[in-house]
Amino acid sequence: MKLNNRFIFGLLSILLAAVIAFVALPTIAKQTNGKTEIVRVTKPVLKGEQLSADNTETVEVGSYNLPPNIAHSLEDVKGLYATADLSQGDYILTSKTSAVPVSSDVALNSIPSGKVAISLTVKTLASGLSDKLQPNDIIRVYHFLDAAEEVPELRFVRVLSVTDAKGVNVDNTKEPVEDEEKQQSATITVLASPEQARVITSLENDGVTHVALISRNNEKLAEELLAEQDVILQEIYFPEPSDEETEEMAGDGEAENPETDAAGETGEEPASGEEKESGKETGTSGEISTDKEGNTEENKT
């Protein structure tokens, strides 16, 4: 029995070795030694820069353990924009590219139809909410010339971005690290209608504007407030006529065409100008004829 067991174990060992040698090892070698083409950066590419044949190339590398979202041909990245700084030799991943131009102001890439982005100047620290504003805040704009006044057209406005004097976005969500100078807000960019934009333009050149924070991190409330602002703008610039005004307009329309109304009541069409002229001439001719006949009769008598 011992001899038989040893024989069986030896046979199994030989079979296992054969499987490893002729199946497993070639499979592993094929995976590790397999080649594929990928796109690689040939020179530094900054965030927002467009990818092209001038700054990329295709190279053949081992296909083992490559990320699934790697670009394999120049056609995969041609015309795309880098969403992060890329160094020479970096492989290009689809997660690091964008089909639209990359901007630090992402909100400016998707302004709704009928709206505009416009900036107002922060003339003092207090007028800009002491550098506390953040994107998507809902603010109210006040104007001071001789006295402080609320601006009905700007009761609820969404903030798109806050920038410093150099036009660089100010991130007020983070505290400055040690030895870092805090950026000062210089302008506030908001989403506005054309009517609101005209008001902001006039305020920019007359007096001082102050902003007050109304809502933050509450998208439901923000949508309600902006909808209320749209109603206010509708009432100011495109008011609906009242029932009395509608009746007056209808009455004016009837008064302008009295002949048409009279003709409508009798079922006859109003006479044209030529017909009226012809009627007058006919009437006159009849009188003359009568006069002539009358004179003749008198002579006979």
Low-confidence stretches: 275-301
Number of structural units classed as domains: 2
Structural class: alpha+beta
Tally of helical segments: 7
Q: Beta-sheet strand percentage?
A: 15-25%
- Averaging pLDDT over every residue, what do you get? 79
C-alpha-based Rg, rounded: 43 Å
Order of helices and strands: HEEHEEEEEEEHEHHHH
Biggest beta sheet attributes: 6 strands, antiparallel
The 3D shape can be described as elongated
Helix fraction, binned, reads: 25-40%
| Separation, N- and C-terminal Cα atoms | 176 Å
Based on DSSP secondary structure assignment, what is the total number of beta strands? 10
Characterize the structure shown:
It is built from 7 helices and 10 strands. By secondary structure, it is of the alpha+beta class. It has 2 domains: 97 residues, Type Iii Antifreeze Protein Isoform Hplc 12 (Alpha-Beta Complex), CATH 3.90.1210.10; 132 residues, no CATH class. The strands form 3 sheets. Strands 5, 6, 7, 8, 9 and 10 form a 6-stranded antiparallel β-sheet that branches. It has a two-stranded antiparallel ribbon with strand order 1-2. A hairpin with a 3-residue loop joins β6 and β7.
